[in-house]
Specification:
Blueprint (H helix, E strand, L loop, with lengths): L25 H15 L6 H8 L13 H18 L7 H18 L1 H7 L7 H17 L3 H26 L3 H13 L10 H5 L1 H7 L5 H21 L1
Helix pairs in contact: 1-2, 1-3, 3-4, 3-5, 3-6, 4-5, 4-7, 4-11, 5-7, 6-7, 7-11
Amino acid sequence: MSERVVPAPGSRRRRRPTKTGVVLSEELIVETALRLLKEHGAAALTVRRLGAALGADPSALYRYFRDTDDLLLAIADELIGRTLRAWRRTGDWRADLRELGLRIHAGALTHPQAAVLGSCRVTGRTNEIKSVETILGVLRDAGFPDPEAVRIYHAFVDQALAFAALDAAAGSLPPEARRADEEMWQSTYARLPAESHPHIAATARHLVADMTPSAYPTALDLLLSAAGARLETFKSA
């Protein structure tokens, strides 16, 4: 999709069915873009391929999105929305944030190409705004002072998105490359001699067991434990 700028969406949006009998909408375009990204990677995110997949003239897409970047922000916001719709707040701030973080991570792995492209972006759209409001509400209701709530929110979100991008990128590797990386812990690290690498040799079996799965759940627990300890200092001050 070119970096073309057009008037804001509105009356120009198509209401007639495409040649395949579907009526275009922002939601349908985003859903189709997610499917193409998942099946074919970032190279699939073009007007020509989207138009072909939708059975529409490619130029019709500009009635909904200004350019590729506008579409990418909508895709990122949709992933946020899916996470929020599947999550329910219980009132236990630590459990709620842990569940939300795990859902953010899992959602990224469901659409790894989209996660890699969108994890560093700020969409300013409905779902992202709702997520910021929701997470800050969880933290402020738990008793965190406002400056601390913002710092923990920042760390929580960046940690989740960073691991999402890292693990999604790993998941996007060709299968043979992914297997080679996973086997490296057994084929190389587990065979290093204790004389030259005593610490690796002493922990080799743990490296083999623990280095392939994502470290995100552990990192998330460490972050929440640290936040909980800080909250206790505020309560006792």
